[in-house]
Amino acid sequence: MSGDSGATAERVAQMRAQAEELTSQIRRMTNSLGEVARDAGTVEVTATSGDGLIVATVGIDGRLRALHLDPRIYHQPNAADLARSILETADAAVEEAQRRALELYQPLLPGEALSSLVERDPKKLLASLVGELSTLRKAEDGR
């Protein structure tokens, strides 16, 4: 029977070490996440239309920060073409901003949280992170 208790004690020690490592990883992620979020807040992406007449700048969150329309656009006024070109240019900037967001956050976030970030769904992102932490907490409490 003492052989079984030795194996059990060893298993408990292994689980405890794993839980401590996970806790350490969470602390590192939490600290790094704040730094990355600060850095992400300063990222802006600029895209230019193919004809060079429209320049759109967006933040990493995909929100339009600046829009420059070259006065030459008024030489051939076509509201539908202009609107389409503005949207295409802004969309190109947003795609690049999302790519940069993935680069910044990928090392820190689990897959589901990362997809929530790309979808710009802060509630889903927070729920995903809380779920991850709850799962780790339950594993730690079960030791």
UniProtKB/TrEMBL annotation:
The protein in question is named YbaB/EbfC family nucleoid-associated protein
InterPro entries named among the record's database cross-references:
YbaB-like_sf, YbaB/EbfC
Tell me which domain of life the UniProt entry assigns to the organism this sequence originates from. Answer: Bacteria
